[in-house]
Amino acid sequence: MARTKNAKQASTADSDSNATAKKSEAVSGAVEVDGTTQASSLFLEDAAKNPLTINHYNGAEVKHTLDDAVRRILVDDYSFVENFKHVDTRLLLGYLAVVCAGFGTLYSYLVPFPKCKPVLAVSVVAYFIFNGLMMLFASFVEKDTVFMGVKKDASRIDPDVHATASSELKRFSSDYSLTINISKGGSHHEKGKGSKSAKSSHISLKRNIGVWFDVEGRFAADAFYRDFTSQLSSDFLKQN
Predict the structure, then answer these.
(1) What is the pLDDT of residue 113?
(2) Which residues sit opposite 207 in a β-bridge?
(3) Which of 27-36, 49-58, 115-124 has the lowest mean pLDDT?
(4) Which residues pair with 199 in a beta bridge?
(5) 11 exposed, middle or buried (CB, 10 Å; 0-12, 13-18, 19+)?
(6) Considering only CA atoms, which of 122, 86, 120 is closest in space to residue 105?
(7) Number of CB atoms found within 10 A of residue 163's CB
(8) Residue 24 pLDDT > 70, yes or no?
(9) Of 62, 68, 65, 127, which is closest to residue 94 (Cα–Cα)?
């Protein structure tokens, strides 16, 4: 009886110890990838403190959640500095379109019709031009790009690492596709422009969104983190 009681107590102590270790690991943001425990993750720490629940039937909301997770992992855990060139270009074209529309409206208020007709016509044409340019830029230049960034070496010994991520979640589909182009020694767009030492890597990830969201729409950040970081090449990226 005494031995049985001692065995039960030992088993209970081991279970409590394992539970405490797992809890400590979750709080610290540590995660196991390919059988090895990785360094603390700021992304996982934030996800543990602020769990996210979304409407997983809304494709746009699901895609935004996963795209944002990609950006946060690259910025928080891999020290990339995001390049907002695409966002800034869209905002500039949008602001110019609004300024043209606002100016035409104000001018037509101050100067009665038909005297304001020439200026009003120019304002309307300019509005549609800038609006059209913004749509063309989003369709043919920005496309599915969700992240552009660069990681600079603090010692200035190693070349900069450039990353461009694009994603796709088609309508009525539950498969999320992520593609990341990484170049070392020159950006992906500069490849072939005299940068002979530049090296590049292409990373692809495709999963059913069901592995990252439960039936209630809770986002499994640790599962997404494992799937995402397991695809990253250590030759190009090192977690900080």
Answers:
(1) 87
(2) 176
(3) 27-36
(4) 184
(5) exposed
(6) 120
(7) 26
(8) no
(9) 127
pLDDT at 186: 58
As a whole number of angstroms, the distance between CA 118 and CA 135 comes to 26
Encoded tokens for 148: 């552009």
Report pTM.
0.74
Q: What is the DSSP string of 142-169?
A: ITTEEEEEEE--TTS-SPPEEEEEEEE-
Please give the structure tokens belonging to residue 170: 């088609």
Whether residue 51 is preceded by a cis peptide bond, meaning omega within 30 degrees of 0, is: no
Distance between CA atoms of 70 and 207, rounded to whole angstroms? 14
Name the helix (H) or strand (E) containing 181: strand 175-184
Q: How far is CA 52 from CA 25, 105, 183, 206, in A?
A: 19, 43, 32, 22
Q: Which residue in the block uniquely carries the two structure tokens 């809890």? A: 23
